[in-house]
Specification:
The chain has 573 residues and is α/β, with parallel strands linked by helices. 31% of the residues lie in helices and 13% in strands. It is built from 19 helices and 15 strands. The strands form 3 sheets. A 10-stranded mixed beta sheet has the order 1-2-3-4-6-5-7-8-14-15, sandwiched between helices. A 3-stranded mixed beta sheet has the order 9-13-10. A two-stranded antiparallel ribbon has the order 11-12. The radius of gyration is 23 Å and the shape is globular.
Length: 573
């Protein structure tokens, strides 16, 4: 979901379909399905190696309830990226299967680009036509990607930077700035119940026949999306547990989990003693009061690294790598300096604690290509946060050193589960020579003479690299709805944490909903979901948390990508 200028830019490449609008149905009752206002716009991408898949962005008008409060009109629409086999049926109801995916934390629909295309292609090889719907949560209506789209059209990342930082207009539009907490009061009312109901209402609007949904839809998600899917499976949507056609589990024929589990206890709460419930109720009431007053941030954000501006920076870096991968990056110098960005650069590109404290050398002192910049931001040998890591290759063109910040490599490699969950499993590396050579990037399938760490081992091997940096750049920059979620609603994660408190997840009344349907667990071997393997898991060796979404269709061993292959097999069985 985007601002009108973004939709206009998308519509220029294809036909806009608009159906008649009807009044909203009260959310407490699963009333008969009526046609909703709907827009579907084809999306064109010229750089994907997977060419047999059609993509479109679909928007369905499902107004928020009045209780949410005053909110932008764009937020009365629910959006998703629809991927389908070009040789398959045009109507979703006629597909053999429809996979519906909830994104993880800080994640948007475009993150599913590669896994969607690869899964559809694998199913088509076996004569089956499936669709993949990558959902976008309500909060994404706040994002403005006008600058990224304009930069893509001009093939110049400076166009995007000028829009976001220099107030330069694009088609008459000037960037309004990033939304502050005082502008997000309504988002404090968008939590777990609204999120699962949005999925339910969208499924009913797009596939009105309940039997079709039960027979053809598979529900799932990545990371936190597995937890949301668990609650969806247990939810009762008409307020009457005795009627089950409206239950979440009755909208799906199966579940899939991408480096996660379909579970409502993913945060480790499990079954709590009865005397703990009043404490949870007090906590939930305090959080709600804090959100209403603005004391609790309504969107999860930190002063650096994790906030709307830095999430948008990933899209700009993806744009630069998409249109000019081998050109020398100047984003760190062309973007005006700020406390947020300078602190973020220090946290991501400091060699050790002393460098972080002193600020010397800083990232602007090194010379590197746009590909190397993107690799530095997201590759598992550089990005310090495990949930933001992918395996996209390794730096080349000059000497590198161990990156011992925020923790030394020997601690990361110690086998400590807490370190692995937070920082990942791989040795971290950093450019060694400021004001020296122009560092480039070796793609996942083109590794040669990888540098060795101080322990004498290479920083990486071909078996550990699975994602094509070209595809990652395209996924970040070329879609009408984002790879990231700039405004992740705090209420959603606090609701999940306090779900056992009365009044938070009262709709989750079908405890057998998760076990009512078959499930496939697709885990990253070096990611988060495979920390506690279970019988029947599909584990992809060498994968990091994002790789289950972004991995290339052909791997370095010459075999098809295992996550999408297994998911396609599950879907068509």
């Amino acid at each position: 979901m985007r601002f009108p200028t973004r939709r206009t830019a998308c519509a220029a490449g294809g036909t806009l379909l608009l159906l008649a609008a009807v009044p909203p149905v009260p959310s407490a009752v699963a009333a008969p399905v009526a046609p909703a206002a709907r827009e579907e716009t084809p999306v064109t991408t010229n750089s994907s190696p997977v060419t047999g898949v059609a993509e479109s962005v679909v928007r369905v008008k499902i107004p928020l309830p009045a209780s949410v409060g005053t909110h932008p009109a764009d937020c009365d629409w629910v959006s998703y990226l629809r991927f389908r086999d070009k040789n398959g049926p045009a109507a979703s109801a006629d597909a053999d299967r429809v996979l519906v995916a909830q994104p993880g934390i800080f994640e948007g629909a475009a993150a599913f680009d590669s896994v969607a295309r690869n899964t559809i292609t694998e199913a088509a090889k076996k004569g089956k036509h499936i669709e993949f719907w990558a959902l976008d949560r309500r909060s994404n209506c706040l994002e403005d990607n006008t600058g990224v789209l304009a930069g893509l059209k001009a093939r110049d990342p400076h166009t995007a930077v000028d829009y976001y930082y220099r107030k330069k207009a694009v088609d008459g539009r000037v960037f309004a700035g990033y939304q502050g907490n005082d502008q997000l009061k309504w988002l404090g009312n968008v939590g777990l119940e609204q999120t699962v109901r949005d999925q339910y209402d969208l499924l009913r609007a797009e596939l009105p026949d309940q039997r079709t949904r039960r027979d053809k839809v598979l529900c799932g998600g990545h990371s936190l999306g597995g937890t949301i899917t668990g609650f969806f499976a247990e939810w009762d949507f008409d307020g009457n547990p005795a009627t089950t056609d409206d239950a979440g589990y009755a909208q799906c024929g199966g579940y899939f989990a991408l480096d996660t589990r379909v579970s409502t206890s993913a945060l480790g709460l499990g079954d709590l003693p009865e005397d703990a419930v009043p404490l949870l109720k007090s906590g939930a009431d305090a959080v709600k009061a804090g959100l209403d007053a603005g004391i609790v941030p309504r969107a999860l954000a930190l002063p650096a690294v994790i906030n709307p501006e830095t999430m948008n920076l990933l899209a700009i870096a993806g744009l630069a790598a998409d249109v000019a991968p081998d050109a020398r990056s100047d984003l760190a110098t062309y973007i005006p300096s700020s406390f947020n960005l300078e602190t973020t650069f220090r946290l991501l590109f400091s060699r050790d604690f002393a460098t972080f404290v002193s600020g010397t050398p800083k990232v602007q002192d090194f010379r590197f290509t746009n590909d190397a910049a993107l690799g530095g931001l997201l590759d598992d040998n550089s990005q310090p946060l495990a949930f933001l890591q992918a395996s996209v290759g390794f730096v080349t063109g000059g000497p590198v050193v161990d990156k011992d910040f925020p923790l030394p490599n020997d601690l990361i490699l110690s086998g400590n589960g807490a370190f692995a969950n937070l920082l990942g499993t791989e040795r971290k590396a950093m450019f060694a020579t400021p004001n020296g050579p122009v560092y480039g990037w070796q793609n996942y399938n083109a590794l040669k003479n990888v540098a060795k760490a101080k322990d004498g081992q290479p920083f990486t091997t071909p078996a550990k690299e699975v994602t094509d940096i070209r595809e990652l750049a395209r996924s970040l920059a070329e879609h009408p709805i984002d790879f990231t979620e700039d405004y992740f609603p705090t209420r959603l994660v606090t609701d999940i944490s306090l779900a056992k408190a009365p009044g938070v997840a009262d709709g989750a009344v079908h405890p057998d909903g998760i076990t009512a349907n078959p499930v496939i667990n697709l885990e990253a071997g070096d990611g988060i979901g495979a920390r506690s393997p279970q019988p029947g898991d599909v584990i992809a060796p060498g994968y990091q948390h994002l790789d289950v979404l972004t991995a290339s269709a052909v791997q370095n061993d010459g075999k098809p990508e295992p996550i999408s292959t297994a998911l396609a097999g599950f879907a068509i069985r």
